[in-house]
Amino acid sequence: MISARSIYHRLRRYRTLQTHYISALPVAIIMPHSACNCRCVICDIWKDNKNLTQLQPEDISTLLVSLEKLGTKQVVLSGGEALLHPRFFQLCDLIHTLPVKITLLSTGLTMARHAAALVNAVDEIIVSLDGPEEIHNQIRNIPDAYSQLQKGIAAVHALRPGFPISARSVIHRLNYQHWTAMVDSAHQLGVQQISFLPADTTSHAFNRQQSWPMEKQDQLLILVAELETLSHTIEQLITQHADDFRSGFIAESPAKIRRIGQYYAACQGLQEFPWKKCNAPWVSTVIEADGTIRPCFFLPASGNMHHETLEHILNSDAAVSFRKSLDTHQNPTCARCVCSLYLSPGHKII
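^ that's the sequence the OP posted. Answer follows.
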């Protein structure tokens, strides 16, 4: 039976989509710490580790006032690597004063060390997986990254066997031929699910002060001559892991997996970018470690929490006007987006 509170929250979410004024904010993505403990080829966050910024407990307390007003249901702790924050578990305790689900996005390198605290501090963990062991280590630029990830997952599950841990993989030129082996590795690691997305090479997200030059992009983009091999690899994945698609172990449908191939063909100018359904700026926000507020990872900043409250930033005249004018099917940043989010007003988070 749906409670009166749930019905009220759903109505607020409908109102947001109709008016472009954020009455309810289901998801908040918070980056508590700007540094990372990997040196991945697919992002530049680690290159700025020396210029550390991080949110303090008092910043989180301030945010929680706004999140409570906006009826937030899920807080995603992203980064950088959030576990590097020296007061990470204090931040989690503060967040859990609200009835929200905490999701941690992690490299997994320090999970074993923190396992006992993690099973009580967060509600689920999503780890990055880049391939079978050798490929994962190469892409992470950490010699024992895979073994540390494996130990971390095992340590958490030794304490709480049913604790939800899933994997997220970015598919690109350096690992696409190992796609089926990656799914096999996910099974061996003991995660409950694995999801896939293509690589972002053109935005200013992930600490890119400027867009990558084409020679850097070509290290990750799948070239025209390789697209046929990519297509064959996708069909092989769909055939060999049909049971994993049926069971939901692979989060995406075969049709969505094929869109990754279409995405890379579009990057080479051979077709339009695949259509996607996204309402992220209406249902979520990103709070960076320096207090910057964004509609999503990729769109321009709309303010800073150190200067104004979150709800004031989200519902400023400029922010409301931006959402009113934003056509996610036509906006060039949205068209190339690799990480779209769509939540209907009736979608239940917790």
